[in-house]
Design brief:
Blueprint lengths: L19 E2 L5 E3 L2 E2 H8 L3 E5 H16 L5 E6 L6 H9 L3 E4 L2 H9 L7 E3 L6 H10 L3 E4 L2 H14 L3 E6 L25 H12 L4 E7 L10 H21 L5 E3 L17 H18 L6 E4 L3 H4 L3 E11 L6 E5 L8 H5 L6 E2 L9 E6 L8 E8 L7 E5 L19 E6 L2 E6 L4 H5 L9
Helix pairs in contact: 2-9, 4-5, 5-6, 8-9
């Protein structure tokens, strides 16, 4: 494993589970030397440890099924999705949450079972909903009155009945960045509490919609589990009220995802088993308090499966020393492969992969190659003495790295590798400069 003391990596939970410092002092993941991967496949490069992905999927299933009889683990594809990931999730028995027609199409191309797909989104188009109906998706998470009427019309045209959940905004604010607080009042997602009863009435009255339950998602990267108690209490209380008002029998409650992961050595995120114990215990307490039958529980982990499993590999370019400031270490990627630091101040650590056992004795600022002053991957961290040509990795980038990748400054998006038992295979090809310009046309339309 990575030499946690000498390398300055104080918390191995930020690295994939198979990480170690090999005999030549290099970082190894999935039995593959990361320096060798950089030489073979180029940089920047996303590397995912398949064993970590599968282990975390199984931890979720085991933790929840041990505590509640009827539960479905739904992987949140927005955190990281490609055809290979769809196949892995399907093989592990999880359902899949998609948030766009593109993700839905990808799942279909991978052969993911339609009945195990939950379709999210705050502004689903008619074309996207039509694709969902034609693919036979298991659940549509309805987000607005407009969507209720649109989905009813499309389902009627096909003479089908679609299972739906209503996304409710429970007015719960977890302690996380405001951009990822999705359960607070004023969120663009879902029905506010003031509209929730009318949304239930509209859904129940729609002949081609079968309202099976309710959904909420309070936010992401949540360390303090207590807001889940409040959110579950709100949902169950509403369900009890609607049962009295409309005779609504809630068969499913979806509490979303949002469990935090460790990005820094000092982070101490809750374990999956703690999350399972808290959520299932709260749901059982609230259901009993309102004398309701126990619904099926749906949970939607994304980051807490994909995040730790992935890391990003760069090659170091220019080094710049400035008075009173850390050493500037420029890499061959940046905000095009990881925009999270710019988007909401996400923080990371780094390791020189070809010096994995060396002391972390240099204070550095890791910067990208893009034409933005804010293109800073890590504002301040300590790594081993670094030279041009070294291989630098940022762990914990398995969630929302590839998903948010872009072509700023015409930068091609990196390749994605899955590694396992000493072998590596490309699951997403590296873009080329020609790929970036492929859809462009000249002035005369050629």
């Amino acid at each position: 494993m990575v030499n946690t003391r000498e390398s300055g990596v104080a918390n191995r939970s930020i690295y994939p589970m198979t990480s170690r410092c090999n005999e030549v002092g290099h970082l190894e993941v999935g039995g593959c030397d990361v320096v060798d991967l950089a030489d073979r496949f180029g940089t920047p490069l996303y590397v995912y440890d398949e064993a970590t992905l599968r282990t975390l999927c199984r931890e979720y299933v085991d933790a929840f099924t041990a505590r509640i009889d009827d539960v479905t683990i739904v992987y949140a594809g927005k955190s990281f999705l490609c055809k290979a990931m769809c196949e892995l999730v399907a093989a592990e028995g999880l359902s899949l949450d998609v948030s766009s027609g593109g993700e839905l199409w990808m799942a279909g191309a991978a052969g993911f079972p339609g009945e195990r797909i939950c379709f999210h989104g705050n502004n689903k188009t008619a074309a996207e909903l039509a694709l969902a109906l034609d693919m036979g998706v298991g659940r549509v998470i309805v987000d607005s009155f407009h969507e209720i009427s649109l989905l009813e019309r499309l389902a009627a045209e096909r003479d089908v009945q679609q299972l739906v959940l209503l996304r409710i905004v429970p007015s719960v604010v977890p302690s996380t960045h405001k951009y990822i607080q999705t359960g607070r009042t004023g969120s663009k997602f879902g029905f506010p509490l003031s509209d929730a009863a009318e949304a239930v009435r509209a859904a129940v009255a729609s002949p081609h919609l079968d309202l099976v339950g309710v959904h909420c998602h309070i936010g992401s990267q949540i360390f303090d589990l207590s807001p889940y108690r409040e959110a579950v209490a709100v949902l169950v209380g509403l369900v009890a009220e609607w049962h009295k008002l409309f005779g609504f029998a809630c068969r499913e409650i979806d509490v979303g995802g949002g469990l935090a992961i460790d990005y820094l050595a000092e982070d101490r995120s809750p374990r999956i088993v703690e999350f399972a114990e808290f959520v299932t215990g709260t749901l059982q307490t609230e259901v009993e308090r309102h004398s309701l039958p126990m619904p099926r529980l749906l949970v939607e982990p994304g980051r807490s499966i994909s995040g730790r499993a992935g890391l990003t590999v760069y090659r170091v370019g220019s080094l710049k020393s400035l008075p009173t400031l850390p050493l500037y270490v420029a890499v061959d990627g940046g905000m095009s492969d990881n925009i999270r630091p710019m988007l909401y101040g996400a923080r990371y650590e780094a390791l020189v992969a070809n010096k994995a056992a060396a002391n972390a004795d240099v204070e550095v600022k890791v910067v990208g190659k893009h034409c933005e002053s804010g293109d800073i991957l890590i504002d301040n961290t300590r790594i081993a003495t670094v030279e041009t040509g070294d291989i630098l990795v940022t762990p914990g980038t398995g969630a929302y790295g590839y998903s948010l990748a872009n072509n700023y400054n015409g930068q091609p998006r990196p390749a994605v590798l899955f590694v396992r038992d000493g072998s590596a295979h490309v699951v997403v090809e590296r873009e080329t400069w020609a790929d970036v310009a492929r859809l462009q046309r000249s002035l005369d339309g050629r």
